[in-house]
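Quick one:
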Amino acid sequence: MKFDLARLRALVTRNFWLKVLSLMLACLLWYVVYDSVREVELVARVPVTFGSVPDGLEIGDDPPPVTVVTVWLTGPKRTVGDLAEQDLSLHYDLSGMGAGVAKFEVDVHDLGVPDSARMIRASPGVFLLSLEEASQ
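Output:
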């Protein structure tokens, strides 16, 4: 088989701009797909609130109530990358609880983030809350 430079040149130059456009579209498509599935990590300080304290009870000081939890989230850039600290909160409903110490475990579902986000860890991951009889 003889090497034919003229044939190679014709192969490259025929529909040249169409080939360039195809290459550019392929690169753009690759970038869009790659960028949307790339994993990112977010570290956020999330405020903790408690609601619906039963009548006759109040939140005690021993142990002191947790007010902020630091969470590490990971997931696709299009979901986790769009989250802001202001969008995250942990709210616990205390209705139906009695006096004593309750144990709470921080869970990714309590944060209200999309299902594609995963929580790597939380600090504190578990905390205690004391409910005491209200002083008159």
